[in-house]
Each structure stands twice: as structure tokens, then as C-alpha cells.
Automatic annotation (TrEMBL):
NCBIfam families named among the record's database cross-references: menA, PRK06080.1-3
Gene Ontology cellular-component annotations: plasma membrane
Top-level EC class as recorded in UniProt: transferase
Tree of life domain: Bacteria
Gene: menA
Source organism of the structure: Tsukamurella tyrosinosolvens
InterPro entries: MenA (IPR004657), UbiA_prenyltransferase (IPR000537), UbiA_sf (IPR044878), UBIAD1 (IPR026046)
Protein name: 1,4-dihydroxy-2-naphthoate octaprenyltransferase
């Protein structure tokens, strides 16, 4: 029987920046338009946090019953370790999706009812990442999905429910957050190439191989700095505050560029998540100041 601490670890709290950063960035974009609505931002945060916790538990369940998690280097896996039953972890996943669904329906009904369909697509994307007969995460499409759901959809959705529209600043912020979020998954999958290959999980990292995956990671963590400069050009010079994330991006890239393997790559995930948060906070502050 898993303890509360083990359930918390199994929820993978280190992935939470992937949920928090898009809402901060999207709220900053709404603030630049003079349309920030704080209660809607908080509801968007509930949706985002619920979805990422749900996808974490769903992945734990699906990978666990497939045996993919039998030999892992990373965080605790509840099903793979035998600490929790598959049924219990599956219930936790759908409980999280339920909380996010309720918050999402409220946001949709007070903004645009068609957003309910977007929410359903997000839940389906979360489940079928590693669930179902042909999970797309096992086919190399995980990074694209992360860019779309935790970059474009999360940032632009947050901006839209507050401002009723999206603009260039929101698009640039969404691409920056999506790049960082995808980089987190690339680092994770780089670490797991040996075990994923053995278990038949053909991630993008497995397809590209070790060296090209490292190049991809370096590109992804560099893109937000370029987009920060673009944001300063098209919106406000205050957006240069987002560049405070650049040193963290460099620190994230070091263990990857130096050929780190297994546990040596774990700091890259943490530094990338922190860089994403700092970029989003800096950009949001800058957009509010430049409004």
C-alpha cells in the first residue's frame, strides 16, 4: 500500500512547471491586451494542473501494465514498483481529469462553449499518450503533443478565456513555453533510450538516436531566448525580462551536451522546468509593464 508521500512522488511534482508556466504566460498576454481576469486565470491553472497530474497517473498506469516501467532510472512509478494497484492509479488519473473537466466547463460556459470540445481533446490526448492499443507516445509523437497541449493550447487558451482573443504576443509565448515543455520530455526520453528500446516504446529519442536527440534538446532550450527577443520587438521591450531564463537554459543543456547518461541527465529536466518558469514570469511581468 503506497503512502501519501509515495503517491505524491508518483504524481511527479517536478513536472508541475509544465502546467504553471503556460498559465502565467497566457495571463501575461491577456494583461498586455488589458484584459487579465484573475479568477479565470486561477481556473485555468486548476485545469492545467489537473491535466498534468492526470496524464502523469495515466502514464504510470499504462506503462505499468505494459511492463515499460519495470526498470526505470527516473521518479517512482506506482504501478511498476508494485506500491499501488493499476486500478487505484487509473482512478487517480480520472479523478484528476474530472476536476479539470469541471473547471474547464465553467471557463468554457463563461467564455466560449466550443472550448468544451478543446477540453475533451486535451483529455483524450492525455489518455492516449500511453493508453489504448496504439499509444502515440510509443510512436514518437509525444514531443509534438506536448508542444501543442502544454504550449499552444494552454497558453493561448489562457489568453483567450480572459481576453476573448489571441494576439502575436500570445503566439510567441505559446511557442516558447511549448519548446521548453517539449525539451523536458526530450531530456526524459533521452535518459530512457536503453530501457524504452528494450520494451518496444519507440519514442522520438529512440528514433533519432542518442546524438541527434542531444542536438534537438539544445535547439529546443535555445528557441525561447530567440522568441523572447521577438516578443520584445513586436510587443514591448519589457519582454526582455524573459531572457533571465537564458543562464538556466545553458545549465540545463550542459549535462546533455557533455554526454551525460542515466541519472546524470536528471538535473537537465529540473533546470529546463525552472528555465520555463523564469521565462514565463519574466515575459508576463514585461507584458503587464508594457500594456
Amino acid at each position: 500500500m503506497a503512502t501519501a508521500a509515495q503517491w505524491l512522488e508518483g504524481a511527479r511534482p517536478r513536472t508541475l512547471p509544465n502546467a504553471i508556466a503556460p498559465v502565467i504566460a497566457g495571463t501575461g498576454a491577456a494583461g498586455f491586451l488589458g484584459e487579465a481576469v484573475w479568477w479565470k486565470a486561477l481556473l485555468a491553472l486548476v485545469v492545467s494542473l489537473s491535466l498534468i497530474l492526470g496524464v502523469n497517473f495515466a502514464n504510470d498506469y499504462s506503462d505499468g501494465i505494459r511492463g515499460t516501467d519495470d526498470d526505470r532510472v527516473g521518479p517512482l512509478r506506482l504501478v511498476g514498483s508494485g506500491l499501488a494497484s493499476p486500478a487505484a492509479v487509473k482512478r487517480a488519473a480520472f479523478a484528476c481529469f474530472g476536476v479539470g473537466g469541471v473547471a474547464g466547463v465553467v471557463l468554457s460556459l463563461t467564455s466560449a462553449p466550443w472550448l468544451i470540445l478543446v477540453g475533451l481533446g486535451c483529455v483524450a490526448g492525455a489518455w492516449f499518450y500511453t493508453g489504448g492499443k496504439k499509444p502515440y507516445g510509443y510512436l514518437g509523437f509525444g514531443e509534438i503533443a506536448v508542444f501543442v497541449f502544454f504550449g499552444l493550447v494552454a497558453v493561448l487558451g489562457t489568453e483567450f478565456v480572459q481576453a476573448g482573443r489571441i494576439d502575436a504576443s500570445g503566439v510567441l509565448a505559446a511557442c516558447a513555453v511549448g519548446s521548453y515543455s517539449s525539451a523536458v520530455l526530450v531530456a526524459n526520453n533521452l535518459r530512457d533510450i536503453p530501457t524504452d528500446r528494450e520494451s518496444g516504446k519507440i519514442t522520438l529519442a529512440v528514433r533519432l538516436g542518442d546524438s541527434r536527440t542531444r542536438v534537438l534538446f539544445s535547439v529546443l532550450v535555445a528557441v525561447p531566448t530567440v522568441l523572447g527577443l521577438a516578443l520584445a520587438a513586436v510587443a514591448t521591450p519589457w519582454a526582455l525580462l524573459s531572457l533571465a531564463s537564458a543562464p538556466l537554459a545553458v545549465r540545463a543543456a550542459l549535462p546533455v551536451s557533455r554526454g551525460g547518461q542515466g541519472p546524470a541527465l536528471i538535473p537537465a529536466l529540473a533546470q529546463t522546468g525552472l528555465a520555463m518558469l523564469v521565462w514565463s514570469i519574466g515575459a508576463a511581468i514585461g507584458l503587464f509593464l508594457g500594456a
